Every structure is written in C-alpha cells, then in structure tokens.
Amino acid sequence: MTAETIIQSLASGLLMGLLYGLIAVGLALIFGLMDVVNFAHGEFLMIAMYATFFLFAYVSIDPLLAAPLVAAGLFVFGALVYLFVVRFAVRAKANAGMVQIFSTFGLAIVMRGLAQFFFTPDYRSIAHSWLGGKTISVAGIFLPEPQLVGALVAIAAFIGLYFFIHRTDFGRALEATREDAGAVALVGIDKNRVFALGWGLGAGLVGLAGAIMAVFFYIYPDVGASFALIAYVTVALGGFGSVFGAFAGGIIVGLVEATTAMILPPSLKSVGVYAVYLLVVFIRPRGLFGSM
Amino acid sequence: MLSVREVTTAYQGLVAISSVSIEVTKGEIVCVAGANGAGKSTLLKSIAGAERPRSGTVTFDGSRIDGLAPHLVTARGIAYVPENRRLFPRLSVRDNLRLGSYLYRGQTDREGPLDLVFKLFPRLQERLEQRAETLSGGEQQMLAIGRALMTRPRLLMLDEPSQGIMPKLVDEIFAAVKRIRDTGMTVLIVEQRMAECLEIADRAYILQTGRVLIAGPSAEIRVNQDVRKAYLGL
After folding, report:
1. What's the whole-model pTM score?
2. Taking 50 as the threshold, does the pLDDT of residue A24 lie above it?
3. What letter does residue A73 receive in the DSSP assignment?
4. How do residues B177-215 score in pLDDT, each as one tens digit?
5. Domains in chain B, please, with CATH?
6. Which of A21, A1, A3 is nearest to A253 (CA)?
7. Of B51, B58, B113, B223, which residue is least crowded by CB atoms under 10 Å?
8. Is B52 an 8 Å CB contact of chain A?
9. Number of C-beta neighbours around residue A156 at 10 A
10. Which of B73, B88, B151 comes nearest A180 by C-beta?
C-alpha cells in the first residue's frame, strides 16, 4: 500500500464523513431540543432522494439546483411531522418514552410502505447530472465531484447553522428551549413553534444531504435504513444532542470507515465504525462532545 | 387591572386553591402571604396560564385571560417570575436578558428596559458574559426579575423572591421591588416572609389552606391581633 493510496482513501473518507455529519446533524438537533429520537430520520433522507430523482426525471432540474428546493420541502415536511405526530406523542400521559419511540418508528414504516407502493421497490439512479461521475484531481489525489460538492455543502450548512443558533433571535429561542422548554413561555415564546422549527430545520438539513446523495447512490424505499444506522452512531459518538458533535462524529465515522476498508475486506467495511462506537460507549458513554 | 374571581384550581383531583378572589389595582404592590402549601404559588400559576383553573375567571385589563396559553399571557403584559426562577442556566446573563425582549425583536428600542434593569441591579451589568448558572442565588433572582422586566410588563408577579437568598440581598430585592413600582408598574408578590412583604405592600391577602383568610391594607393587617400571633410571631 503506497502513501498515495492511503491519502486517497482518507481523503474520500473525509468527504463521506462530512456528508455523514450533515445527515446526522438533524437527528442531533431534534434530540438536543426535545429528547426525542427520530426513528424516521432515514426515511426523511429517502424521500429527499426520491424528490430529487423526480425533479430530475420529470422536470429536468439538476440535483444541484434541486437541493435548496428539496431542503425547503423537507423543512415543511419536518414541521408537519412535529405538528401532527410528535406533538401528540410527547403529550402521552403514560409510557411517554415508548409512545415517542413507536410514533416515529411507525411513521418510518408507513413512509417506507408508501414509497414501495407508489415508487415501486425498483432501484433508481440519476444519470447524467452535472456532477455525476466526474472527478477532480488535487495534487495527484482524485476526488469525485459529487462527494466534494457534498462535503462543501455540509461545511457551509454547519457554518450557517452555527450563525443561525448563535446570532439570531430564533436561534437563541432554540437554545433556550433546549435548556428549559417549560420556561420559554415566561418571555413570550411559544415552545410548540420552536419545536416545529427544530423539526423543520432537522428535516431540511437531511433533505440537503439527500439531494446530493441522490447523485451517487441508488434510490430505493429502504435506502434510508443503512444511512440512518450510521447517523445514530455518528450522533452517539459525537455526544447526543450536540450539533458540533455530529459534525466531528461524522468526520470520525468517515475516516474510520475508509481506514477499515483499506485493512479489511470490503464486506466488513462497517465493522470498524461499530467497533469504535462500542469503544466510545464503554469509555465515555455520553459521547466525545456530549455534556450530559 | 387584575381581577381574580372565585378561582378554584386542582392538581389531579387535589384542590390547591378554592374559590379565591383577589383584586390588583394599577400602581399597587399587593402581597399574597401564607404558610407553605397555602396555595400561593398555585394562585400565580393560575394567573400566568401555567395551570388551568377548574372554575372561576381571571380578567386582566378588561379581558379574560384564564385558559390562555402561558406565552400569550406574557404577551398580554403579565411577567411571571416563578419560585425556582427558571433561568436558562447555560446561557449567558446577556442572552437571558436578550431573550426577555424576544417579543420586541426587530424593534430598534427592544433593549429599552435594560437601563432600568442595570440601575436596579448593577451586579448584572458586571456579570453579563457569565453563564446564568454561575450566579449566586440572589443574583439569579435579580436576573429572573431583570428578564421579566425586559418583557415590558404592566403587571409583575413574583413568587417568593426571597427564597434561598442571603438576608442582605433580600433587602436589596425588596428595595428594588419598590423602585419598580415607582416606575408605574404594578406588582403582585407572593411571600412566606410576611413582615418584610407587608412593609413594602399597599395591600395584602393572607391565604390559608387554599382560601383567602384575611384581606386588607397592609397597615391594618400588620396590627391585626390574629395575624400577629399566627404569622408574625409577636
């Protein structure tokens, strides 16, 4: 194994890791805001990929242009999921934890079932997009353009999110609700609006990831499952609820995955990620950047 | 200004206040006193929308506010500082105050009441960048009152502001309450420390096991023999 292949491999791991971070951050955001794990997160990703596919196939909008539209669509979808499903689930008088888990888990199954019915289980892919299949060479390292653009979008999204949370009134309301949802009414904030915004934002971010991933992954009803699993690991690794942790966790997952792929046969490429995850859970159960 | 009529509030079937009526007129300091469990906090929660009364009405400036969601009560001009203060612990003093003016975001003078807050509690100005959780109990109470003032209330409701605070700061906070009233605001304050509360209040109500026992001007209540024996230890 030459130094070049190692760098090549780590570079693509880093790019993929940034995308993993973007997929996971919505999950972390929602969990941090209201201690609810969205078990339909992978299905949010799935519908974002389908939306991008259909925009490309029927309206000829390139995924790159479709990304903001898909993100906006998912924002609305996420807010509606809060208002019509989660809002009622968190009100449960008994067994609140179970009710929350099964409400989003049930939503996931419904979404997958509907996707199978309406979109069929066929694998779809987007051919001849602006970025698809192209690579760029930087100092002798070949980087696939879709992954590179995905990584840049992820970084931009994280920077945007940072400023949104720390510099705007709505961001401050989000932080305050995270701290004490029962207290925000004291300053005139409607916590339900903040929760809806949080779900919208979380879904919008995974929508952004889905639009870009549609360029280089097959699109099918179960596509969300494997990515959701990685997203849960990313979030747990980074520290549940920590937005920055999701970013760092994503990069770690990407790099570990790439390293494993160099050492072990490809079919075992996920082993490294879960091994690292188990190790972190044993040594530091709150995650690397968790504060709880 | 505020009129609570025959309000009954219960938690899981347990009646905490029963047919309580109180009146607060503009510019007054009204003290609601009583022992632990008398229903003082429940009364404030029923006004603030944190608890929904089972029966009775709450009217503020001529319109009914009972059953209104708590954030809407704040928007109507009632600021409520609950017993445990409910600050945002990991946010800075500055952010806590800034959140207080959330309703006025986008307005150029949104931070208007900040001058008053700093005049009342200069310590807050010194600790602007500190996290709220690092403040002492007294300072946290000051911040909670400061955050409430940022919502530009017409009625300020304080639940046991003296609780868990060293005596010197208690005096400071009671003095601040008087100065707040002098700016034209109305104050409804709930206290266990009846003597201090009666000193600054214009009128007072004494609650016992969920009912109004005695009501009247503070000066009268202070000299009431039963009150002196039962509550003031004289």
Report:
1. 0.90
2. yes
3. H
4. 999 999 999 999 999 888 888 899 999 999 988 999 888
5. 2-230 (3.40.50.300)
6. A21
7. B223
8. no
9. 12
10. B88
